[in-house]
Structure formats: structure tokens, C-alpha cells
Amino acid sequence: MRRHLTQELHNFIERGRDRQLRLAVTGLSRAGKTAFLTSLVHQLRHAGLEARLDLLRAAREGRLLGAQRVAQPDLGVPRFPYDAAMASLDGTPPHWPAPTRGISELRLTIKHRTRRARGLLGDTATLTLDLIDYPGEWLLDLPLLEHDFLSWSEAQQTTMGSERQRLAATWLSAAETLAPDDEADEGQLAEIASHYADALRASREAGFADLQPGRFLLPGDLEDAPVLQFFPLPGVREANRAELDALPETSVYKTLARRFDHYRRHVVKPFYRDHFRRFDRQIVLVDVLGALNAGPERFEDLSRALSTLMRSFDYGKRSLMSRLFSPRIDRLAIAATKADHVTPEQHPNVVALLESLLAEPLKDLRYADVPVKALSLAAVRATEPREVDNDGQRRPALRGTTLEGEDVLLFPGDVPSRLPEHDFWARQGFDFTAFRPPHRDTPELPHVRMDAALDWLIGDKLK
Ligand code: GDP
């Protein structure tokens, strides 16, 4: 009797401790965050019914009873537009949901049965899961915290290669007319800043990802705010620091430096302090296949952007993150999205490629003892794997409907398992087609390994 009571008490405390989890989803634009979160909510809401979630242990054991949306706690954060996203997927024809642009949130309560010894089902328990979606671009701003305006301006000049300079020509020619000691003219600075934002957007359109400041691309609620009216000043050098520091407060240099500082203190820091620091778990989505499709320059740029982005998860003792904040993320997943763009036997290569793309950050994470898992998934599986007969040989293929509505059967190519050499694109290349979301007759939303992602991210809280 006594033992029984102690066990009951233990369960109670355990459940109390595990009642809540904040799971954040991020990735650069078009990585697949909106599709992922929509599918995740759908899968959990249909758990125990139509959803196929065999790789999620609690579901496999028949202990997952379902999930409900409830009012979120943060009234200042927009709600993740789940209904609108589902309406797009359920449209005729089905189409992809409009991507979210800033931070948004949704709270689910998940009902499950606890596990008892020998596979017996225990009591009913509830896990409150807060899902937070935010742009990966915002994480590209972390390094700004170790810069001041001068060192940042200098660093930007070195990272801007020839193609990006070409895309930034209008901004560059206007900014080069400015001398650091000119008297600042508000209107002129606002105009040049808008050219800078245009240049960043053009670079992003061209497939570049390593772009700062992140909020210029996805301003969220800061659209048109003066705090975003700055840009790196071409030509300033560390060697001239003393002279520049002595300039009057009304000079171009000092005005831009003040805005840069304001951005760091009032935009970058608060995101980490008020949101990031409170995440328990995180999944970072990466469109590896998209970058592979876009060619060598974009692929290298993605690799640079990801190393910057991943610094926010480096909790080594001397890391910038640990020095400034005390993050509590205790488990991380890195996922290559849209795996349904390639045939299933290529999926292990997709994961291997993702791991080599993130080799350095993953090494740091493992060293800092942050549990991390790499996987490939499709939030919404838009294709069906098939086999075709090719000169008497069975070959894997995909069947799907293009965005234009054409039914196709194709083989998109082999995915390299390591970072490709420059000549990969000339030699072999890779060509994937974008597909329309699947037409469905049942509530089930087909996916690839969403259940594996869920098992890693929340499975231990569903025991
Ligand atoms: P976000 O900007 O990170 O929110 O990205 P989205 O979720 O809007 O995804 C960008 C685009 O990628 C979508 O419009 C789809 O075309 C495509 N996409 C996203 N997830 C999947 C998936 O699981 N399968 C397929 N085939 N395409 C996807």
C-alpha cells in the first residue's frame, strides 16, 4: 500500500513537472515552417484517428488520445493562422498556405495515457504544448551583438561578393556619395536605407541567405519604423576609429552608429530575452534540396548562413549566446524539409548532406552536450513513390501534380551524400519540380517522418 502510494505521488510530481513544453520552429524563408507547423498541429489533432504516426511511440502504443487548440498565453504575439493554412490545403485545387512573416504562436493540449510496466496503460495526462514559429533570418542578427557600427560596416564590406555588389548597385552608388563627417540629412538617410533594404531583398530573391540585418527582410511589426533606417557605411576602417569617434553627434557616421546601436538593444536583444530564452525545444528546418537545385553559389551561401544561424544554439561556456543570455533549449532537431521531392532511397543521402552542411555547428553542439538529431521529412507529402521500368530495369520514380496542374512521373536525380564539389552542378546537376499539395478524400494529411520528428521533440513528455 505504502509503495503504491509513493509511486502514485511520484507519477503526480513527474506529470506536474512535465505539463508544459515550449517548442519553437524556425528556418530561413521558404524552408517550410508554415507547412511544418500546419502539418504538426493537424497530425496531433488527428492522432488516435486518421493520422499515421507509427514512429511516435505514444501513438504506436495507442496512448495518444488527441489534441485541442486552446487560448495562448502571450496575448502580444499573433496566433499561428492554422485555419487559413488548412483552408489552403483543402482548396480546389489544393494550394500551399501563405507563409508567416514574423513570430506567431499556438497552444495545444495533448491528451495521452501514461505508460505502466508491462505495456499496461496508465492514467490520462495532459501535456500543454506551446508552438512558436519565427523567421530564421532573425537569428542571423545574433553576431550583431558582438559588433559596433564600425566593425559591422567593415565586416559587411568583406562578405559582400561581386554578385551581391551588383544587386546592391543602387544602394552602393548612393552610399558612396556620403562622407562620414557630412551633416546627417534624415530624408537622404531614409532613402539610402530603403535602397539597402531593397538590395537585401533582391539578394534574397536571387537565393542568397547570409544577409544582415535580418529584420530588414522580415520586419514583422517594425515595417517602416525608423529603427530600421541604417546601413553599413562603405569605406570606414578600424584604423580611423579615433577620428570617427570624435565626429559630432549630428554627423552621418554618428547618426548611423546610434541607429545601429538602437537596433541591437531594442530589436535583437529583446527577441532573445523575451522569446528565445524561454524555448525548451527547437527544430531548425533547412531546404537543402532547394539549395542543391539553385546551384553552387547559393549552396555555399546557405552553408554560411546556417553557420551563423546555428550560433544561437551554441551553448559552450565561452559562446556569445551563453555569455549574454541563459538559454534553456535542451533538445534540438535539424530537419531537411520537402523530402518528398526525391525518391525514398535518396532520403539517407539527404540527411547525410544536411549533416555535412552543418558539420561545424553540429560538432560544437555535441561538444556542448546539447542533444541534437538530424532527419529528413516532408510536412505534407505531395508525391507518391513509384517504380518504373527502364530498359528492363526497375527504377524508382515519383508521381505528383505540378503547380500548374500537370500530372507527372519523374526521377529528379541522385542526391550527393557529401558537400558536392563545384563541378557537381555542371556534371550531374539536380532538377526538382515543385508540386501541388495532394488532393485528399480523407482527413489524413500524408507526410514523411513528421512522427519521427515529433517523437524526438516531444516523445519523452508523453510517457
Ligand atoms: P516558410 O517561409 O518557411 O514558412 O515556408 P513554407 O512553409 O511557406 O514553404 C515554402 C514552400 O515550400 C511551400 O509553398 C511549398 O511550395 C514548399 N513546401 C513546404 N513544405 C513542403 C513539403 O512538405 N512538401 C513539398 N512538396 N513542398 C513543400
From TrEMBL:
It comes from the Bacteria. Pfam families: DUF463. InterPro entries: YcjX-like. PANTHER family: ATPASE (PTHR38605:SF1), ATPASE-RELATED (PTHR38605). This is YcjX family protein.
